[in-house]
Amino acid sequence: MPKQRHHWVGMRMVKTVIAVFICGIFGYVRGEPAFYSMIAAVICMQNSTDKTITSSVNRAIGTLVGGLYGIIILYGLEFFHAENLDLLRYTLVSLTIIPLIRTALVLKRPSSASLSCVVFLCVTVNHNTDSSPALFALQRMVDTLAGVAVTCVIDLLLPYHPKPEEVAAPAEPPSTTDTTPKEPKS
Fold it and tell me: Structural domain of residue 101, as residue ranges?
């Protein structure tokens, strides 16, 4: 049997690099950092197109849910002039994890729960002092969704090449000689 070659760089790696690069170019053209779209590209690219699409849908749902909850919480804190009361903010942010996860379950997308929590925490913990929380959250949501879209397009345009062990061997044809023992006739 011939020795199989192992490629150091596979198609998933190539596709991920291309998607991250395109996200970087989009960020460069817009004059914005491409951090969130690049992260989305890395997270969403999987080892098959079906898995990439599923991961991308979960990422998009998680981003939208987490971003919307983040906007609501930040505006609520601002409305009550509580954005600088760290203990109150951390309590509210922590408790909001429950409805975030519950929303993912209600939407029948449990895989998007952790992503919605991550987006929510990025918006509410790291960027709670931005001049416009809604604008920041919307920009991050658009960045992430752009990364998701780029990843899906790249994955659909560049085919996967299955590894030799993934290619099924042809089934052997059924035997033409019957080898089952026969019962004697009486």
Answer: 11-160
